[in-house]
Design brief:
single chain; 224 residues; five-stranded mixed beta sheet; three-stranded antiparallel beta sheet; 5 helices; 22% strand; globular
């Protein structure tokens, strides 16, 4: 038997949540400072989420589950921020499976049309979830240098609109290809994200995009 008890105070669940995130990121080979930063961002984003303790048949707390909602262009989405049980008290994984069902039900009852989860490593509980995106991180020990024969310069104001339009089109196409949005939803999200993140109030922006030029990169854009 598995039961659940809501955790009202963030101090009852966020410290453990953060430490497990740090441990998971470090297990992938991420350096400590980067793991700490990513975990801190995740904890900050968890404000407003609902957390519940996972209890065994004796009422003993053996894990926790964290859930939340997000409004997306494709409709309301549920999010499972964490689903953790102590392996020593859940050897068969039955409590994890029960917590997964609880989390999905919590999301559905609040109108979520889909449930998303972010994983630092494969998890059999989410094996049937299609992959919608990946974040890859490369540790750079020395400053990166452009390949031989390639140079770059700041983009001009006149070049910026065409670069931005092409970027929106590629961004929307990626979302449609991933299956996360319809064509219209992707177009709207691309417009919104570029307006929020990539539209400087004045030219030039603090770090303008750059044009790269070289034998194989005559007019390709690179983020500056």
């Amino acid at each position: 038997m598995t039961d659940f008890a809501l955790l009202a105070a963030p101090s009852d669940w966020q410290p453990g949540y953060r430490q497990r995130l740090v441990d998971a990121y470090r297990a992938t080979g991420l350096p400590g400072p980067a793991a700490d930063e990513l975990a801190a961002r995740a904890v900050e984003q968890s404000d407003g989420c609902t957390a519940a303790a996972i209890l065994d048949e004796d009422g003993r707390r053996i894990g926790q589950v964290v859930v939340g909602l997000a409004e997306r262009h494709s409709g309301p989405s549920g999010r499972i921020g964490e689903l953790w049980t102590d392996p020593g008290h859940d050897e068969q994984g039955s409590h994890r499976r029960a917590a997964h069902a609880w989390a999905r039900r919590w999301c559905a009852e609040r109108g979520a049309e889909r449930v998303v989860v972010r994983l630092a490593a494969p998890d059999e509980v989410f094996a049937d979830y299609p992959v919608r995106g990946q974040t890859r991180i490369k540790v750079i020990s020395t400053p990166a240098e452009p390949p031989a024969g390639v140079s770059h310069r700041p983009m001009t104001e006149a070049e910026y609109p065409a670069w931005q339009a092409a970027g929106k089109e590629r961004y929307a196409a990626d979302m449609v290809r991933a299956g996360s949005c319809t064509s219209e939803q992707a177009r709207q999200k691309a417009e919104e994200d570029y307006r929020t993140l990539c539209s400087p109030r004045a030219w030039p922006p603090p770090t303008p995009p750059s044009w790269c030029s070289g034998p194989r990169a005559s007019r390709s854009a690179a983020a500056g």
